[in-house]
Amino acid sequence: MVILARSPDPISRVARASVIVALVVTAIKAAASMLTGSVALYSDALEGGVNVASAVAVLIAVEYARHPPDDDHPYGHEKAEYLAAGFEGGLIVLAAVLILYQASKAFFAAPELHGLGAGAAVNALAAVINAGWGWYLVSRGRAWGSAALTADGLHVLTDVWTSVGVLAGLALAWLTGAWWLDPLMAVAVALYILWAGYGLMRSSASGLLDEAASPEVQHQVATAIRSHGVGAIQAHRVRTRKAGRMTFIEFHLVVPGSMTVEAAHAICDRIEHAVESAIPKAEVLIHIEPAHEAGEDGVIAI
Fold first, then answer.
1. Which of 55, 138, 148, 160 could form a disulfide with 22 if both were Cys (CB 3.0 to 4.6 A apart)?
2. 17-53: per-residue pLDDT in tens?
3. CATH fold of 215-301, please?
4. DSSP one-letter string for the chain
5. Domain 2-208: which topology?
């Protein structure tokens, strides 16, 4: 009900479109699997089903992340996107286990393959759609600072490579007559997406554990402090963390003991404005200290 009632922002619109694209691509892959009886194509279709579940999880997460801070969540709800990325990684691992199970059965009961040309063409169409959509998701996710969209895009691009590998395996099986290559390629697909799932869960954990912002962002913060902190002595204990689209920045600003509160506040305003202009969705917290509190931890001289 909440998802339908709220007016979508660009990230939400892309997330909704991603669910539709995932459904279409999965249907195409399922058709290719039924046309051929291939275990490798079945594994690719199964991962498409995971894509659908992942896209739904991303949509729920980005909608929840849009909620403003409240009494129970004073720093907002942005970390919901990391939960979605971790959930997506878990689904990928589950899909890999199911694929390995199906492939192991096929080694003992060779599949009857048929209609490989039509099936391969249909699956290639799904791969082309995924390639374009995955690239778009990653580019938008990184531009908008959305961990969930970026993770979804990387997952979709992983799916493209698995499709390419499956098609290559089928071509080898058809050319050589070695049909055992079909389940073998399914095993290769499973191992590859296991690695991709691990990467997504690791990335999600980094965000949930308050990993520092990128070196580029930290450099922008230091530059803003040096350029707009005239009148202060130094900044130290500079700390950053990412939470979805938000970047939280805090540090101690040392000023002369004789400086008035008004003057110190004016310096803080200049720095905050400079940081927020350089880093979208930044939240800056500055703690003012007198000169005798000057520190040695991560000092930025002004």
1. 55
2. 999 999 999 999 999 888 887 777 887 787 788 788 8
3. Alpha-Beta Plaits (3.30.70)
4. -HHHHSPP-HHHHHHHHHHHHHHHHHHHHHHHHHHH--HHHHHHHHHHHHHHHHHHHHHHHHHHHTSPP-SS-TT-STTHHHHHHHHHHHHHHHHHHHHHHHHHHHHHS------HHHHHHHHHHHHHHHHHHHHHHHHHHHHHT-HHHHHHHHHHHHHHHHHHHHHHHHHHHHHH--TTHHHHHHHHHHHHHHHHHHHHHHHHHHHHTTPPPPHHHHHHHHHHHHHH-BTB-EEEEEEEEEETTEEEEEEEEEE-TT--HHHHHHHHHHHHHHHHHHSTTEEEEEEEEEGGG---SS-EE-
5. Alpha-lytic protease prodomain-like (1.20.1510)
